[in-house]
Design goal:
The protein has helices spanning about 10-30, 30-60, 70-85, 100-105, 120-125; strands spanning about 90-95, 110, 135, 140. The chain has about 150 residues and is mainly α. It has two domains: about 5-60, no CATH class; about 70-140, no CATH class. The strands form two sheets. The chain has a two-stranded parallel ribbon. A two-stranded antiparallel sheet has the order 3-4.
């Protein structure tokens, strides 16, 4: 999957700025002909956008790459079941993609991709492969920041 999801704020801001610009042009122009041209241009852009995206949207609807339900069950429910069977409480799970895990997991979730964990993000930026290196001979140090549904 591409990293287009990170462009979401850009697209949202672009649509907002475009809508405000169109509204300003609409208010500034009192004559009917420029308004009609503006409305026709917007309608044309809308139709072209829909027709250009329809095949890709239909492909996605017919066969999604990975559903939220699968991610939620696999990385939330399965890890919860394993932790319960092993009587493990108050521990963490380290995952590269949180997906739907935070919706169901009762474990502390550390994001290895660094999107929600500042320690991992800083280590990634510094090219440090060991953000949670052992602090003593007793084992690894605790994560300083974890995401969890329990708080």
């Amino acid at each position: 999957m591409g990293l287009y999801r990170f462009a979401t704020p850009v697209w949202t801001l672009t649509i907002l700025a475009g809508a405000l610009a169109v509204a300003a042009l609409w208010d500034a122009e009192r004559r009917p002909r420029p308004r009609a041209l503006l409305a026709a241009g917007l309608a044309l852009g809308f139709v072209l956008s829909l027709t250009g995206q329809h095949p890709k949207n239909q492909d996605w609807l017919d066969e999604p790459a990975l559903s939220l339900c699968k991610v939620t069950h696999r990385f939330g429910g399965v890890f919860n079941g394993c932790a319960q069977r092993l009587a493990i409480h108050g521990r963490s799970v380290l995952l590269p993609d949180l997906g739907g895990t935070l919706l169901t997991s009762r474990l502390k979730v550390v994001d290895l991709a660094g999107l929600t964990d500042p320690v991992v993000a800083d280590a990634y930026a510094a090219h440090d492969p060991t953000p949670y290196a052992p602090t003593s001979s007793t084992g690894p140090g605790p994560p300083s920041s974890t995401a969890t549904m329990d708080g």
